[in-house]
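Subject: for your reference before the review

Hello V.,

The reviewers asked for a structural picture of the protein, and I figured it would be easier to keep everything in one thread rather than splitting it across files. Below is the amino acid sequence we used in the manuscript, unchanged from the supplementary table.
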Amino acid sequence: MPWIQLQIPADSETADQLEDLLMEMGAEAVSMEDAADQPLYEPEPGTTPLWHQTRVIGLFDPARDIEQLCGEVHDQWHRQTQQELPEIEAGLIEDKDWERAWMEDFTPIRFGERLWIVPTWHEAPDPSAANLVLDPGLAFGTGTHPTTALCLEWLDRHPTEDQQVIDYGCGSGILGLAALVLGARHVIGVDTDPQALQASRENARRNQIADHCLDLYLPGDEPEIQADVLLANILAQPLIMLASRLADKIRPGGDIVLSGILSHQAREVMEAYEPWFVMDEPEQREEWVRLTGRRRDR
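And here is what came back from the structure prediction:
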């Protein structure tokens, strides 16, 4: 039996209220998913963290009129909040084994020539390649989001053999761990969330990466070293604020890789780094860009 599926953009402040509204209006099930590849971690007791950009999905009886249902959702939301609801994406979907379908959606993904991200339930397509075993979930963006994919592809094209790498804003560790499976000598991961550091360590051990190859720190606790490569997939404004601090962490001639930047923000971020780096032209995918540059001699 098919179902009516409504998909509605939300944020961490409105998602719960929107979930309640859909249930009140007769949804058979409501789920939420990440709309921007933002990792989440094991929540603190009594908390339910949500992504900043969330997609709320409701399934309804197919006997209902889709256009009328969408109109009712808009009207009820306006009555409750005095605000307009974003556009609803509505359609029919077939009933299926959702857990199995979810797993089938996440197959190994290749980035460039050598690097693969492989879920634990799949065999590596090329055992001789650089394979990073990671499962999609709360603590791991799928790697398909442009911000992550752009960084992974850069790593694949720029050998990190025997290099010191910093992954600033490491999250679950995907970029730093990718650098290690591609041959980096050592990675320092930095993140404001202690649970991100724990997730990075667990993912490293899942990939049989020795503890001494990956050191993890809260910001300000990391050692004062200069890396060959620094990766920072965060957001434009924090990147601008951190420009001089990140510049100090890269040796002359070293590479910086920045992402999490919307295309209209690229020029402002580039200007923040140009006093220290020779910046390349932005690499764009959809509305996101990756910025790269090389550290000038002092």
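For the response letter, the relevant points are probably these. Residues 35-52 have pLDDT under 50 and may be disordered. The longest strand covers residues 250-262.

Happy to draft the paragraph if you're swamped.

O.
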